[in-house]
Amino acid sequence: MAGTKRGAAEDSPSTSPRTRSSKVAKTDSSSTLASAKKGKASAKGGKKGPKATLPASQFKAKALPLHVNITHTPPVASDDGATSAANVDPGQLGSVTLVASSFNTGSYGWKGSKRITVELENDDAGEKEKVQVMLTINATVMGSKQAPGDEEAAAEESKDEEAKEEEEAKEDADRDEE
Predict the structure, then answer these.
(1) In a 10 Å sphere around its CB, with 0-12 CB exposed, 13-18 middle and 19+ buried, how is residue 153 labelled?
(2) Is 145 exposed, middle or buried, given 0-12, 13-18 or 19+ CB atoms closer than 10 A?
(3) Smallest Cα–Cα separation from 69: which of 60, 78, 56, 61?
(4) What residues in the chain have per-residue pLDDT under 70?
């Protein structure tokens, strides 16, 4: 029904919602509705969080791997520092190492994947059924998509070097005039 509008029923104007014509001045209720819509729109397209300042290459050089333990039971810290909680945990399913990498979206962070076997309780016979699971984990650095790229960082460094060279040349010219 493109190009047609539905009008309010003529016989029951009190039951239909009142709308404001486009040329009528806004009232308090319509302005609060408009501001609520603006707030929603600005929240959607507004500031998205902290901005990462490292280029992806520097992040990959500095970031250490992350290790994730997968278990059925909640983590319990052992009293002695010699044995890790992963070795003591009876519900241990596996562990995944996340390595620093750049994603196709332009952001960076850590990623890792591993195939693990999970045992499920079978209610009928009391036997356990095994299923294979592919576990994939991405940990994205917030704001890394807007981080300066390697080319941008190199361009900024070259601009700084050019500015220094120009300043030095100007100082040399000033000394020569004296």
Answers:
(1) middle
(2) middle
(3) 78
(4) 1-2, 7-49, 75-88, 150-162, 172-173, 175-178
Distance CA 101, CA 148 (A): 16
User: Which residue, chain included where needed, has tokens 């850590």?
Assistant: 110
DSSP for 84-134? -HHHH-TTEEEEEEEEEEE-TTS-EEEEEEEEEEEEEE-TTTS-EEEEEEE
pLDDT of res. 39: 46
| Domain-located, residue 104 | yes
User: Does the residue 20 lie in any domain?
Assistant: no
Looking at the fold, whether 176 and 112 belong to one and the same domain comes out as no
Give the angle subtended at the CA of 89 by the CAs of 85 and 93, to the nearest 5°.
Answer: 110
Tally the domains of the chain. 2
**What pLDDT is attached to residue 76?**
63
Instruction: Encode pLDDT of 11-40 as tens digits.
Output: 555 555 566 666 666 665 544 444 444 444
- The alpha carbons of the chain give a radius of gyration, in whole angstroms, of 31
The rounded distance, in Å, linking the Cα atoms of 87 and 68 is 13
Tell me if 88 is assigned to some domain: yes
Say what the pLDDT of residue 72 is. 86
Enclosing domain of residue 155: 148-178
Q: What is the pLDDT of residue 131?
A: 93
